[in-house]
Amino acid sequence: MIANSAFLAAMAVLLLLFLLMDQLSFLIPYKRLLVVFVNLFALFYAASRRLFLKDTGRKLAHVDRQLLTRDAIVRDLSEQLSREE
Q1: How far apart are CA 73 and CA 76, in angstroms?
Q2: How far apart are CA 61 and CA 74, in angstroms?
Q3: Is the pTM of this model over 0.85?
Q4: Ramachandran region, residue 71 (left: φ > 0; alpha: ψ -120 to 50; beta: rest)
Q5: How far apart are CA 85 and CA 75, in angstroms?
């Protein structure tokens, strides 16, 4: 949630910079570069969310089910987690 808020704040700042572009004449030569950067950032961000967060809930549910079983491999970890709660 913090990362999403920081991302939205950064986008608001960039929008403000684009609105003030005529007053900030030193940024005019870099306008295309800034637009390309923002578009590439959005593309990579969307791709990473799709690739790296794929089926996260299902994977976490699987780990949770493993911890609740009486399997010898995870028994010690299950006991340690139950003591910490």
Answers
A1: 7
A2: 15
A3: no
A4: beta
A5: 16
Question: What does the H/E/C string look like for the chain?
Answer: CHHHHHHHHHHHHHHHHHHCCCCCHHHHHHHHHHHHHHHHHHHHHHHHHHHHCCCHHHHHHHHHHHHHCCCHHHHHHHHHHHHHC
Per residue in 28-84, pLDDT (tens digit) is: 788 899 889 989 999 999 888 888 877 777 777 777 777 677 665 666 777 777 777
Q: Judge if 44 and 75 occupy the same domain.
A: no
Instruction: Look up the domain containing 44 and give its range.
Output: 1-54
| Distance of alpha carbon 46 from alpha carbon 60, whole angstroms | 21
Tokens 């990579």 sit at which residue? 44
Say whether both 18 and 31 belong to one domain: yes
| Tokens read off for 3 | 């990362």
CA atoms within a 13 Å half-sphere pointing along the CA-CB vector of 43 = 6
